[in-house]
Amino acid sequence: PSCYLLLALRVIDDADLLLVMEEHHRTAILRADPRAADRTFLISEYALQADGAGLGMGEQKAGFGSRSPGIDDPIGQDSEAYLDVFWRLDDYITRAMPRIEASVDNSFRR
Predict the structure, then answer these.
(1) Per-residue pLDDT reduced to its tens digit, 30-74
(2) CA–CA separation, 53 vs 30, rounded Å?
(3) How many CB atoms lie within 10 A of CB 58?
(4) Quick count: other Cβ atoms within 10 Å of Cβ 96?
(5) Are 21 and 45 in contact (CB under 8 A)?
(6) Rounded to whole angstroms, how far apart are CA atoms 87 and 72?
(7) Which residues have a Cβ under 8 Å from the Cβ of 59 and sit 6 or more positions away?
(8) Buried b (16+ CB within 10 A) or exposed e, 3-24
(9) Measured in Å, how far apart are the chain's first and last C-alpha atoms?
(10) Which residues does 72 contact at the CB level (< 8 Å), separation at least 6?
(11) CA dihedral 17, 21, 24, 28 (to 10 degrees)
(12) How far is Cα 76 from Cα 61, in angstroms, rounded to an integer?
């Protein structure tokens, strides 16, 4: 395996939580290490679960059983697309922080 793959596998193995922007990122992680399934999330779904499935900026309510939408990578797009991604990530991170902080607090109590 390449050095990159070995490093990626180590990062995946060491991580308590893996938050990604797009579904294909999650798929790549799970292909590399299926054991990471219970700690790999779209940032959008993790944030929405954290605050009781409220809607994020610009989000539409998903149908029953569907996943919340990912955040498309803005690479190659104009500055407006980057700003949109920035504000969406800001919103999701803000919403996810209480859940992240609680999991950190719980891991230190063990």
Answers:
(1) 999 999 999 999 999 999 987 765 544 444 444 334 445 789 999
(2) 24
(3) 11
(4) 22
(5) no
(6) 13
(7) 44, 48, 68, 69
(8) eeeeebeeebeeeeebbbbbee
(9) 35
(10) 21, 22, 85
(11) -30
(12) 28
The model's pTM is 0.77
Which letter does DSSP use for residue 22 in this model? S
Stated length of the chain: 110
Residue 40, strand partner residues: 18
Q: Which residue has the tokens 């609680």?
A: 102
Task: Report the C-alpha gap between 1 and 101 in whole angstroms.
Answer: 35
pLDDT-derived band at 110, boundaries 50, 70, 90:
low
Residue 45 tokens read as 């779904």
Residue with the two structure tokens 């900026």 = 57
Q: Which residues pair with 42 in a beta bridge?
A: 20
